């Protein structure tokens, strides 16, 4: 449910209420775990138009579900107007006929806040749509890092950290009376910007009011669910045991086969060969024994979440090493916005297209005053009349937010003028953004910079287009450049 990290994800719109993430004391009193300062928006109801815009109309290229469009309920990567990246789960039509029931279930899950959860921040029940909105975590799923790695296999210490952190998440849900988690598996574990594993809150709701609770292979499904079709708290422990098998083996092993290996004392055949030399036999035996206990056929014979925590906590031997270091991930430095940003720069940073439009309207063409302008020096000809009329109609369309017409008029104007106008490129660029064409908007912002190499507006609009394209590092650089030229201009005025 996530691949990319937004460097503007911490830039919130003014009306977005933020609440600090709950940070309970670690179960181990002497554990000095570095806490995140991640802030999570309060749970709220979203409008369908807002989520449609965030996902570019539920565009197929933004699907992040492991099964793609074939998934019964598809998850999309989205970006809210304030710049925050989100994961949007869209349920199949009529999955939850009763909107109030869906809202009630979602709101209950939305009350949970924990650093080990991918927190739920909203839902939508408009019409027959049923959507959930959660935080977006950028560093892929446990499934990707275990089964489809391309740089390095997940090290032993990171695997036991996953086991511990997920046990923490389950214990918190249990304490908050959310004891049922549907289909816990390696796809439900995601890694945040720090490389820390978190448990998706999507699994706290069924895929439909009366639908299945499990979508994985029947070989991994708790026995009692096969018998009765019901999920009980002990079913979650069974599924946790299957995740332990994934962590131990680095591959999908059906529980029945794994238990045969364990009973036959063939633990070495169970272990991932890439982990050789990274763990002690004693630690491996403890984790194997815990997995065996979780996978007991009778639900009453399985341990509870407190036992999971007490069993995996002692296996954490490198607590001082950050997760992103263990995983070999490069951790981006936190975004620090330039201190000197004009209102336009700030509007571009928070990707507020409406504010950008208002500012460009008010600025008009005054930034180009004094620049060579063919309109001032050519003889009055029919060509000049055409240029003036085309510019007028383009400006009217831009003012009236008829951006398709503005694009057409400004494109004609660019072809007519022998000396291009930076403002025309800027206006056409914003029109492209409003029309959902960020690549063309970036091209026009770059053309505006060619016209006026030190024009802050050109840099700010490039930053905005780059953010829309998901190129956050480059966008940050452009914001910095724009602010630098802003400061240079201010200093020249003072002098």
Automatic annotation (TrEMBL):
EC code: 2.7.11.1
- Catalytic activity annotated for this protein? L-threonyl-[protein] + ATP = O-phospho-L-threonyl-[protein] + ADP + H(+); L-seryl-[protein] + ATP = O-phospho-L-seryl-[protein] + ADP + H(+)
Q: Which Pfam families match?
A: PK_Tyr_Ser-Thr, TPR_BSK1_C
Per its UniProt entry, what is the enzyme's top EC class, as one word? transferase
**Molecular function terms, GO-annotated:** ATP binding; protein serine/threonine kinase activity
Keyword field contains Transferase: yes
Domain named Protein kinase: residues? 61-327
Which compartment or compartments is the protein found in? Cell membrane
* Record has Ribonucleoprotein as a keyword: no
What is this protein's name?
Answer: non-specific serine/threonine protein kinase
Q: Which organism is it from?
A: Iris pallida
């Amino acid at each position: 449910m996530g691949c990319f990290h937004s460097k503007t994800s911490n830039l919130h719109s003014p009306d977005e209420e933020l609440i600090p993430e709950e940070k309970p004391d670690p179960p181990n009193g002497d554990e000095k775990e570095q806490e995140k300062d991640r802030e999570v928006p309060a749970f709220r109801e979203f409008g369908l138009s807002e989520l449609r815009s965030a996902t570019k109309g539920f565009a197929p290229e933004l699907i992040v579900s492991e099964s793609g469009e074939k998934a019964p309920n598809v998850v999309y990567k989205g970006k809210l107007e304030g710049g925050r990246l989100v994961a949007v789960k869209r349920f199949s039509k009529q999955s939850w006929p009763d909107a109030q029931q869906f809202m009630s279930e979602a709101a209950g899950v939305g009350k949970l806040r924990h650093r080990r959860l991918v927190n739920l921040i909203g839902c939508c029940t408009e019409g027959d749509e049923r959507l959930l909105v959660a935080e977006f975590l950028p560093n892929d799923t446990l499934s990707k890092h275990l089964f489809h790695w391309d740089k390095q296999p997940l090290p032993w210490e990171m695997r036991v950290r996953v086991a511990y952190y997920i046990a923490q998440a389950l214990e918190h849900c249990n304490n908050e009376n959310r004891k049922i988690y549907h289909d816990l598996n390696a796809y439900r574990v995601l890694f945040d910007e720090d490389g820390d594993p978190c448990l998706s809150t999507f699994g706290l709701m069924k895929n439909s009011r009366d639908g299945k609770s499990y979508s994985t292979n029947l070989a991994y499904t708790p026995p009692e669910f096969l018998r009765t079709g019901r999920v009980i708290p002990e079913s979650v422990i069974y599924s946790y045991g299957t995740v332990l098998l994934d962590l131990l083996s680095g591959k999908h092993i059906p529980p029945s086969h794994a238990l045969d290996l364990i009973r036959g004392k063939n633990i070495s055949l169970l272990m991932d060969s890439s982990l050789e030399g990274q763990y002690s036999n004693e630690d491996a035996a403890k984790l194997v024994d815990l997995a065996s206990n979780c996978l007991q056929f009778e639900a009453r014979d399985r341990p509870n979440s407190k036992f999971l925590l007490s069993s995996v906590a002692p296996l954490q031997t490198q607590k001082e090493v950050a997760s992103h270091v263990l995983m070999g991930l490069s951790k981006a430095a936190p975004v620090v916005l330039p201190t000197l940003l004009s209102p336009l720069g700030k509007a571009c940073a928070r990707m507020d297209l409406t504010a950008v439009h208002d500012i460009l309207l008010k600025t008009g063409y005054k930034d180009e005053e004094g620049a060579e302008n063919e309109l001032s020096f050519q003889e009055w000809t029919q060509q000049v009349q055409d240029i003036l009329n085309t510019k007028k109609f383009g400006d009217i369309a831009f003012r009236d937010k008829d951006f398709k017409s503005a694009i057409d008029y400004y494109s004609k104007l660019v072809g007519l003028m022998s000396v291009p106008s930076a403002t025309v490129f800027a206006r056409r660029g914003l029109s492209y953004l409003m029309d959902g064409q960020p690549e063309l908007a970036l091209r026009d912002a770059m053309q505006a910079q060619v016209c006026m190499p030190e024009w802050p507006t050109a840099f700010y609009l490039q930053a905005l287009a780059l953010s829309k394209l998901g190129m956050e590092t480059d966008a940050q650089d452009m914001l910095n450049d724009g602010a630098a030229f802003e400061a240079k201009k201010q200093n020249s005025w003072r002098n």
